[in-house]
Amino acid sequence: MEDIVNxxxxxLKETLYLDYAGAMPxxxxxxxxxxxxxxQCFANPHSSGQHSVPVSEMEDLRNIVCSHCSTNTGEYxxxxxxxxxxxxQLFGSLFKWTPKTCFSYLFDNHNSIFGLRSVASKRGxxxxxxxxxxxxxxxxxxxxxxxxxxxxxxxxxxxxxYPYKWISQHQKNGGFVIFDCAGATxxxxxxxxxxxxxxxxxxxxGVHGGVFLIRRDREFLLEDxxxxxxxxxxxxxRTGDFKLLPMIYQRLEMxxxxxxxxxxxxxxxxxxxxxxxxxxxxxxxxxxxxxxxEKLTGLKHNNGKPLVKLAPExxxxxxxxxxxxxxxxxSEEISSSDDECSFGGIFSFNLYSDKGILLxxxxxxxxxxxxxxxxxxxxxxxxxxxxxxxDWDPEEVKKIAYDNEQxxxxxxxxxxxxPRPLGxxxxxxxxxxxxxxxxxxxxILSQQFxxxxxxxxxxxxxxxxxxxxxxxxxxxGCLGFEVKNWSVxxxxxxxxxxxxxVNPDGLTIPTTNCxxxxxxxxxxxxxxxxxxxxxxxxxxxxxxxxxxVNEQVPEKVKKEGEPYGPEVSEFLVQTIGxxxxxxxxxxxEEGRMAFSAITKESLAELENDFDPLRFRVNLVLExxxxxxxxxxxxxxxxxxxxxxxxxxxxxxxxxxSINPKDGKxxxxxxxxxxxxxxxxxxxTFGVLFAVDCDGKTHQLQVGAxxxxxx
Length: 710
What we know:
Elements: H1 2-8, E1 16-17, H2 28-38, H3 53-68, E2 76-81, H4 84-94, E3 101-106, H5 111-122, E4 126-130, E5 146-152, H6 165-172, E6 176-180, E7 196-200, H7 201-205, E8 210-215, E9 232-235, E10 242-244, H8 248-252, H9 259-274, H10 278-297, E11 308-310, H11 320-326, E12 346-351, H12 361-370, E13 373-374, E14 376-378, H13 383-389, H14 394-403, E15 416-417, E16 420-421, E17 424-428, H15 435-449, E18 465-472, E19 481-483, E20 485-489, E21 492-493, E22 499-502, E23 520-525, E24 529-534, E25 538-543, H16 555-558, E26 562-563, H17 566-576, E27 581-584, E28 595-599, H18 600-604, H19 612-615, E29 619-622, E30 637-639, E31 642-651, H20 668-677, E32 678-679, E33 682-692, E34 698-701, E35 705-708
Parallel strand pairs: 1-13, 3-4, 3-5, 5-6, 6-7, 28-29
Antiparallel strand pairs: 2-8, 7-8, 9-10, 11-12, 12-17, 14-17, 15-16, 18-19, 18-29, 18-35, 20-21, 20-34, 22-27, 23-24, 24-25, 26-27, 28-33, 30-31, 30-35, 31-33, 32-33
Helix pairs in contact: 2-9, 3-9, 4-5, 10-15
Protein name: MOSC N-terminal beta barrel domain containing protein
Organism: Tritrichomonas foetus
GO molecular function: catalytic activity; molybdenum ion binding; pyridoxal phosphate binding
């Protein structure tokens, strides 16, 4: 099996992929097939003649999908959709809702299923959130003639597996079941026959797309869609008459199907079969999960406190051998979800320091990125399971959402409302996972987070330093320029980070989101102009003061400061390919830690990767041992006679992984730092400090000293 993984997934040698609940990695055979497709001339399936390869392959794929789910196209119609969410929305838009419909959904569901609640409510249906399938239809429900129950095969938040038997239990009570199986394994539909099934091609084969399985004897529950491209026998524009094609998949697959993706999905299933049948894949994931769970929960700090807290706590998964014994050696029963306490290959947890303090997701994400670990952070689009596991009640969640509405992001991105987490780290295993993957992530967690990580104890600050280089970075995210002397004040270096680039939604564009920003050099000319230079090929100058403020911009942009005219936006489109606004920010806060510095000796520890532009520091210092600038300050500090009021270590981010010369991401320097200097996931490198200039402007020059006051 590992030979197949090494051959088909060579990218997994460097990258530790642990997000199978999000997507299956693409395989080499899919790339090779795409190359073959590029040498052929496939037409739009609606344009083809008597023989159409895309149409033929789509029919093959319908049968392949059913085979992997232990069913057939005689039992289920197979409809290809844009993604799994689209399949659920298709159900919501076409189901024959009535005021006599009762829609129940398990609290532990994806947001896409929760979306059906809104649809049902708008149609006047009764809706309810439940924590398990009721034994019998309640008295209240008996007033309804349609009972729909939606639940997942496995929680995408915690990995909890729900019983297949719920399907027939609900059906015996006269209800219909929506079975959400959009995960890393296929459901076994040989015994239980849900009415509607949701699958994700992305999570099964690494190719974008979803599948909507409809039991043939339940097709009558769905209304016909509106006429659209590819769904009609005929239509008359003048009279409005039309007739839809007879097969339900012909009517629901509106527009041109993504036939190249579907062709690649066939190849993904072929490689999946090499890795084992669905039962074997599920059992292997369970074995890896059991092994990983034991290692993960065994991570303890030297004082005995746990590094990891699972959310929710999970019972230990039985080993395959134990299951075989309890099931008389029948491996087919191992992968069933009839045990209501069983968990699969998804782990949701947070990390804590040896003092019991929640570690920041941002710092953990940084560490994972440096070591090329692909995992997921946040609420995982499952607020029911997430907020329940993390002990947030609905009113608290609504208040947090209201307070952070202007951020324009899911609140789980906040990581925590101190000291309580809002989300988790999610690690998930899949068809191409190995035991080595579990060992690799345990090693990283042990080395980077146990007992605070590898960073040595903080010593005392060693001074004096002298300034050997000075840099100003006028535009946030862009390259700056070097100076020999410069005006400084309580606000920092003059013009430093005064401007930023924001998109029409008012969001500042980080360099990691657009590495081409590193091709823009910002400088100041004659204390009058801001100059943006693109690779010495194209340049634009704008006035620093007395410029015309562009009022014809979205309100969200105006909130960020004073926007420049459209000529700058056009320049940015022509150079970096993004329509952005150059905004001069409002007055900066006085006394903030606006200065950044690092010693030349510390940079030299990176050997050939010495480059102050990479770390965007204002001052390069010289004259003390490497990393000594991060030491504890014991007396009053000054720089060239100016009082330093604040001094602390600087935490670097992924921006420093971008090579300023070509914009390419280079992780080796950060790996070196993280392996030596990681502290609970964060890496300190250099310092930040603030000054008190007594309200005056001073000239700072190369050669100036930082020392203790006498």
